[in-house]
């Protein structure tokens, strides 16, 4: 488990997945639905916009939400929705297939 003195230190020690496939969530006003698993063992649920930091309802621990998401390449196509991304002059556009 990683711990940091403050948000800047947390940003400096987060996994960056350099040279590995990954996504980076840019926390804006998008809603997020998250199950939170705390070091104290509590599991809670949150639905909200902007998720830079989360506080455990059981013990009060505060966490920085790392925006990196691991991407695992699939050999077979899934049966669910696939989001197609393409770069267009530096802006990311998403289309549902």
Summarize it:
This protein is mainly beta and 97 residues long.
What's the layout of helices and strands?
Layout (H helix, E strand, L loop, with lengths): L6 H7 L8 E3 L6 E7 L5 E7 L3 E3 L6 E3 L3 E3 L12 E6 L2 E6 L1
Antiparallel strand pairs: 1-6, 2-3, 4-5, 7-8
Would you mind describing this structure in some detail?
By secondary structure, this protein is mostly beta strands. It has one domain. Helix content is 7%, strand content 39%. It contains 1 helix and 8 strands; from the N terminus they run H-E-E-E-E-E-E-E-E. It has one helix at 7-13, and strands at residues 22-24, 31-37, 43-49, 53-55, 62-64, 68-70, 83-88, 91-96. 0% of the residues are buried.
